[in-house]
Amino acid sequence: MFKKVTPLAALMLAAISLFVSGAPARAAATASISGTVVNESTGAAISGAKVTMLANGGSQSATTDKMGKFAFTGLTPGTYELRASALQYVAYDTSPFSLADGQQFQLAVFLQPASGNAITSLGHVIALGHTALNHSSSAVNTIVASTLQAKGITQIQNGLQQLPGITIQHFNNGAPGNVATLTIRGAGGFAGGANTGYEVLVLQDGEPLRNGQYGDFDLSTLTPAIYQRVEVVKGVGGTSLFGANTIGGTVNLVTRDPQATEGGELIYAVSGFGTQDVNLSETNTVGRVGYLLDLHQFGTNGYIPPSYVVDYGSGQISNPTLYFGLKSLLGKVKYQFSPSTYGVISATDESDIRDQSGLQSQPNGFIAGSGFPSFFGFPGNYVTNIQPKYAFDLHTALAGGSLELRTYHQLLYRIVDGENGATPAGGCCYIETESDRLTGDLAIWNKEMGNSTLTIAAGGNGDYFNYGSLFNFDTFTPSTHILFTPSDCRNSGNCQATQIERTILVRDDDAIGSKFDLTAAGYYSDYNTLNVKRFDPRVGIVNKPDSNTVVRASVGTGFAAPRLSDLQAFLNTSHFSASLFSGCPQTEPACAASAGNPNVSSETALGFDVGYEKLFGSDGHFNIDLYRSLLHNHIFFGFEPAPPGTPTFDNGTPILYLERPINIAGTTYTGIETDATIPLGDRFDFNPYYNIQSAYPTDVPLSTQQTLGNVVDNQQYQGVPLHKYGWSVDFHTLPHTTTASIGADYFAKNNNFNTVPFWSYNASFSMPVGDSELHIGWVNIFNTQAGLWSVYQSGVPYPGASGCTAFGPCATGNLYKTTLFQQAPHMLTVTFDHRWGSLH
Fold first, then answer.
1. What are the residue ranges in the chain where pLDDT is below 50?
2. How far, CA to CA in Å, does 441 sit from each of 151, 331, 405, 501?
3. What is the pTM of this model?
4. Is 278 left (phi over 0), alpha (psi -120 to 50) or beta?
5. Do the domain assignments include residue 233?
6. Are 247 and 560 contacting, i.e. CB atoms less than 8 angstroms apart?
């Protein structure tokens, strides 16, 4: 009789499935441990892997055969631990486990390829089924893509929203085409108009996706279809080659890999409002060549009824729309040059088109005589994003270690079309283009030396961006009807810039006996165009007192570089863009012009993390993390007197102040994150989570508080809820073939919708249908906080700074007027998933 214990073996970067035989007692030294070492990405057996068994102060080693198998026989009862390693793979240590007299353990050890693609070797797994212990020193969540699919989640941002410590920042409502960024532990918000999205790092296969002009990345373009998993590492530094340049944390999207044998998958999903999602993938390895091809298409009409029409003014009658279409492509070819050398060519493209007239507008009463509501906005607001990326990786053995060389190139191209080829009544139109060309090269070398692994990495990436080309769509000549121009390109009509980032990493991962792991890392960063030249250390320790418990702690520093536009933005002399400032004379209250500041330095932070995690009973799990990050030199947009020689506005009035980014404050990010899985019998689990994320500024000058309005010393930032919690009840059949779940998430005070606190309920159901699977996901079941429009200055007022009533969006009583955002209406998504071969 075998008892199976599976802490999510095949689903994560490294995992173990244990099959324990309760055989009758025998003579001493008759127990055994055997198993197979497997490539986690491809499922192929790893031959020549070294497996070391630690027990009773001694060790014994074995090497896997051609089938990846190993065995230790003639063992006495005791506590054992295995360490598996191989060239070009990340070494993995099991938790200590007990071996009884005569017992026979069989293990499948999954090793992660040594690659910059991943930023963790094992994380706290969010998935249907068992949970694996997090053996890293950081707070880590890993979401398996199939889990998002089973819950009817078609955009990664909606899956991230349900994690403790993460808040999605919407620029408008929750429509699928809505631009979305994220905060982790409060960092990365947009308080007071200060864009600090660069405090959070977004990666694809370990490579940065951030945008040079804005410093962040739009999550709405990301689909789970082409990814294996999403890794979230919380806290400062220590997460990847580029990991020191983050304060809140890092999100890494890991793409699928070619499999060792033929397999494929067809996914078809339908939902409300004309929503369809189709994905087709195929993979195989023939001789030395492995390949993967994944094609994906998503489209939705949005949730504004087509019968709803409005008058934009001057007789412009139109239907406001929320159409969003996304096409994704992933292609990989792997060539095995020799047993120790292989190369991978990969290409991805996540491109979309959006008709955002419904997102950017709102009803505003009725126009007399037309019979239609008036609309604050304009028709023909189309946005196109094109984001192709190409990469080449070479993996080989060097000096007894594993070497990876990588180069990548990505284009982020964005067009905002204010008329889409048809000049609306009133003769107003524009086109705005933005492009980022991201390039990078890096080298990573790992070598196992006894019980430690040394990693040395060096690399750099460049961002070449062009922002603000403006012209008339019909004539392709400079427009005389431009609604606005970018403030940093006012004088030139075109803005081009380059930023270069270089990083060197040295890291040592040490196994100290069978119960402690120590990690020490140092990052040197040289960003030659961003006022950054620094060293960031990180130290982490992991204690494994038993096979079911992990205690971890870490301390490190990190930074957030200013954007190049913060440093080099042109002085905006347009009097239409002048800012109100309390220092301006009453006769000319708008006397401040926006500009860049070449003296802005990077934000820096010192972070501490302590965590405890335990498995208990049958599938039971408990995790808690405590953290504190102290941020210095927080960048806000403040006001400074204009220096002598500053030109006047274009209407001849003097510029008395400059509104520009300055280092004026500190910020504290501190809190507690906890979640659990509580078994309710054999088939039901209760999964609650709760976190406190305190995020508040310190040492902000009163004049800046009054100007910004919604940045107040020692007061929680707007859009970052102090409390976040939720729960789910999950059902599964004993073999986990059929599952169901119902749960809720609470959006507390200071939520990102600027509304009163509310609950949002979701449910899902999955079952096998022949060789396929049927998934049903239902989000926002009770249509809570759902609506068509964002409503300007109609959200819950935010307590503003004393004296902020003088100008801007402050009302009587120092209350800052906020914009009310809505959730998407309830949607039922039905997904049919057919897999075959190695993807089954």
1. 1-27, 122-123, 125-130, 192-193, 420-427, 469-493, 806
2. 37, 20, 8, 11
3. 0.85
4. beta
5. no
6. yes
Contact 197, 215 (CB under 8 A): yes
User: 59, 451 in Cβ contact below 8 A?
Assistant: no
d(CA 159, CA 224): 9
Tokens coding 707: 């100007």
What CA–CA distance (Å, rounded) separates 91 from 114?
9
Domain count of the chain? 2
Phi, psi (deg, nearest 5) at residue 101 = -60, 125
Element (H, E) at 468: strand 452-470
* Half-sphere CA count of 335, side-chain side, radius 13 A: 7
Return the half-sphere exposure (C-beta side, CA atoms, 13 A cut-off) of residue 448.
Answer: 20
Instruction: For residue 92, give its domain range.
Output: 2-111
Q: In angstroms, rounded to a whole number, what is the distance separating the alpha carbons of residues 569 and 551?
A: 47
Q: How many CB atoms lie within 10 A of CB 721?
A: 22
CB distance 394 to 382 below 8 Å:
no
Position 494 scores a pLDDT of: 54
Report how far residue 33's alpha carbon sits from residue 128's, in angstroms, rounded to the nearest whole number. 29
Residue 642 lies in a domain: yes
563 DSSP assignment: P
How does strand 124-126 pair with strand 139-144?
A: parallel
What is the C-alpha separation between 275 and 487, in angstroms, rounded?
37
Question: In this structure, which amino acid lies at residue 554?
Answer: S
Centroid of chain to Cα 348? 17
Inter-CA distances, 660 with 463, 494, 597, 599, Å: 22, 20, 6, 11
**In contact, 544 and 96? CB cutoff 8 Å:** yes
Is residue 229 a contact partner of residue 255, using CB atoms and an 8 Å limit? no
Burial class, 343, CB count within 10 angstroms (exposed 0-12 / middle 13-18 / buried 19+): middle
Strand 104-111 and strand 31-39: the pairing is parallel
Specify which residues 251 forms β-bridges with: 202, 232
CATH classification of the domain holding 66:
2.60.40.10
List pLDDT tens digits, range 650-674: 888 899 988 888 887 889 999 999 9
Contacts 24+ apart (CB under 8 A), 779-784: 779/152, 779/153, 779/158, 779/824, 779/826, 779/827, 779/829, 780/823, 780/824, 780/825, 780/826, 780/827, 781/826, 782/826, 783/825, 783/826, 784/758, 784/759, 784/760, 784/823
pLDDT of residue 279: 94
> For the stretch 281-317, what's the b/e string if a residue is b when 16 or more beta carbons lie within 10 angstroms of its beta carbon?
bbbbbeeeebbbbbbbbbbbbbbbeeeeebbbbeeee
Residues 614, 621 contacting (CB under 8 angstroms)? yes
- For the record, the structure tokens of 127 come out as 């998935």
pLDDT of residue 469: 47
Domain assignment present for residue 136? The answer is no
> What per-residue confidence (pLDDT) applies to 8?
37
Would you give the distance in Å from CA 452 to the centre of its chain? 30
Q: Is residue 547 part of a domain?
A: yes
533 phi, psi to nearest 5 deg: -155, 100
CATH of the domain at 494: 2.40.170.20
What is the rounded distance in angstroms from the CA atom of residue 247 to the CA atom of residue 714? 19
End residue of a domain, out of 111, 130, 165: 111
Please, is 326 exposed, middle or buried when counting C-beta atoms within 10 Å of its C-beta (0-12, 13-18, 19+)? buried
Question: pLDDT digit string (tens) for 327-360?
Answer: 999 999 999 999 889 999 999 998 999 887 877 7
